[in-house]
Amino acid sequence: MLSGLTTGNDRVALRFGAESLTYGELASVTGPIAAGLAGRTRVAVWATPTLRTCVAIVAALTAGIPVVPINPKAGSRELAHIVADSAPDLVLAEPDAALPPELDVLPRLPVESDVSGTPWRGDEPDPETPAFVIYTSGTTGPPKGVLLPRRAVASNLDALAEIWGWTGADVLVHALPLFHVHGLILGVVGPLRRGGSLCHLGRFSSEAAAKELAGEGTMLFGVPTMYHRLAADCEADPALAAGVGAARLLVSGSAALPATDHERITAATGQRVVERYGMTETLMNCGVRATGDRRPGAVGPPLPGVDLRLVDDDGVPFEAVDGETVGEIEVRGPNLFLGYLNRPDATEAALRDGWFRTGDMAVRDADGYVRIVGRRATDLIKSGGYKIGAGEIENALLDHPGVAEAAVTGEPDDDLGERIVAWIVPAEVKPTADELADHVASLLSPHKRPRVVHYLEALPRNEMGKVLKRALHG
Ligand code: MCA
Ligand code: AMP
After folding, report:
1. Residue 278 CB less than 6 A away from ligand 2
2. Which NCBIfam families match (predicted)?
3. Whose CA is nearest to atom 12 of ligand 2?
4. E strands along 170-288, which residues?
């Protein structure tokens, strides 16, 4: 799975601020942890944006034990669900990390940085075994655990390497969270599979990204919100723009990059952003080639090895490449997940004859480029690159004593892409917007909190009692 993990290899594998590990050191540090994991079924990793989190991930990957990465800001209900559903044998965390009660009940293996350890010598595990269980939101209900096999991770990273000329000479820069596909699989396993380096910024800032790209950094991975902020900062500061412009490749994904931000980055830095499109269940499906036409609003052709088709409302595939006929994207290939953990019903519903139904609506241009134009489900919100289900937030809001009725929508937002908006019919004591935001943040996650709250006397409903979300706009 990972190349270069050998004693004596002095190439820097991972760098977080002043802390770094070479490949040789990483092999030594992870060896004893991997040995301590042998025979386990599944392990949770407390996924703070730190070097130790990467050490934990590498140890589990080399030992062949599936990892459940945990958002360290996850609230009580979300955590309880993930822990109960994935049933990890133990949790890997920094020795001094204060874990919430939901995780503290599990046995704990501390992630130490002992560079005198013996590297792991086990065989490469079966490619069909799960490497990760990553939780992702649906329109309703709690998040589902996506079982990602080693085969999907390896083949997808190799396809990305092929289209971007990504090699061991690259130094990837990013500030993505380490509990989702983008930051974890593309952003950590990606560089380690190539034998290259990761420079993680801890938290995103344009200054930090520009500084690294002006130096050794060659590639930047980010969500559109980061590129939106980068565009404004590059326009304001030519030195910063020059730093970003020195990158070999700027890559955006997880949500649509608005054409205006794409053009602003180009005008300020001379660089055209490359877009790629993926999902937790499928990893990456499409990507603009490093040598290809980097046109705004397009996610490029399918990746090598990935089959992609568009289907009409009846599920019938069509061939039109007129840039106009809209269909739902279905994909097939070695990039696909194994299924949702404990949810055979949801797995079956997501697949049609071996094709994964993405729910994303797109058109295809004559040169094979895919352009995403929308999403089938209005109850899925993408905010800051995070996928968030409206139903999950509505349920959390309804648990607040001050809420009689609740509906949640996504509204366009220049910075976040979409912002979460709550429509509330208050009970006797009307809660403030901050109270409701804190309530959702503590039960679910801070990124799922409503950014705007509207108070209504009643929600608009049809004769069946179903909320008419289209009638809700502020
Ligand atoms: C705010 N905070 C709170 C509250 N309000 N905490 C508790 N209670 C509250 N009421 C905290 C937050 O936790 C955060 O802490 C800080 O205040 C700021 O929060 P927020 O405003 O939400 O952050 P932001 O600055 O707006 O974040 C923007 C961001 C972030 C950095 C772009 O959205 C982000 O990292 N997005 C990446 C999402 C991603 O990786 N998606 C990939 C999914 P603190 O400051 O400590 O953080 S994978 C995927 O989509 C597919 C596979 C794909 O194609 O990639
Ligand atoms: P997630 O479930 O968090 O993995 O999010 C996957 C979803 O993110 C996809 O189904 C798309 O709706 C969206 N997405 C990812 N990359 C892009 C992109 N480049 N352009 C538009 N939407 C994207």
Report:
1. yes
2. PRK07787.1
3. 360
4. 171-174, 197-200, 219-222, 249-252, 274-279, 283-287
Ligand 1 pocket, 77 CB below 6 A?
Answer: no
Q: Ligand 2 centroid to 166 CA: how many Å?
A: 22
Distance from C-alpha of 135 to C-alpha of 147, rounded to nearest angstrom: 9
The atom of ligand 1 lying closest to the CA of 223 is: 37
SS3 156: helix
Residue 54 lies in a domain: no
DSSP annotation string for 379-424: TEEEETTEEEEHHHHHHHHHTSTTEEEEEEEEEEETTTEEEEEEEE
C-beta 50 within 6 A of ligand 2: no
The model's pLDDT over 368-386, given as tens digits with 9 standing for 90+, comes to 999 999 999 989 999 999 9
Residue having the nearest C-alpha atom to atom 27 of ligand 1: 384
Q: Is there a domain that residue 240 lies in? A: no
Atom 6 of ligand 2 has which residue's CA nearest to it? 279
Token reading at 347: 């797995």
Any domain includes 330: no
The verdict on the CB of residue 279 being under 6 Å from ligand 2 is yes
Quote the mean pLDDT of the chain.
97
pTM over 0.85: yes
Does ligand 1 come within 6 angstroms of the Cβ of 141?
A: no
**Ligand 2 touching residue 28 (CB < 6 A):** no
Token reading at 2: 């990972």
Q: Which domain holds residue 443?
A: 380-471
Cβ of 437 closer than 6 Å to ligand 1, yes or no, is yes
Answer whether residue 184 is part of any domain: no
Give residue 34 CA to ligand 1 midpoint distance, Å: 31
Mutate to test the pocket of ligand 2, among 184, 221, 277, 283 (most ligand atoms within 8 A of CB): 277
pLDDT of amino acid 140: 87
Mean pLDDT of each 10-residue bin along the chain, 474 residues long: 90 97 97 94 98 98 97 98 98 95 95 90 94 94 97 98 98 98 98 98 98 98 98 98 98 98 98 98 98 97 98 96 97 98 98 97 97 95 97 97 98 98 97 98 98 97 93 84
**Euclidean distance between CA atoms 126 and 149, whole angstroms:** 9
Q: Where are the alpha helices (DSSP H) in 255-389?
A: 259-269, 344-350
Question: pLDDT (tens digit, 9 = 90+) per residue, 394-403?
Answer: 999 999 999 9
Number of domains comprising the chain: 1
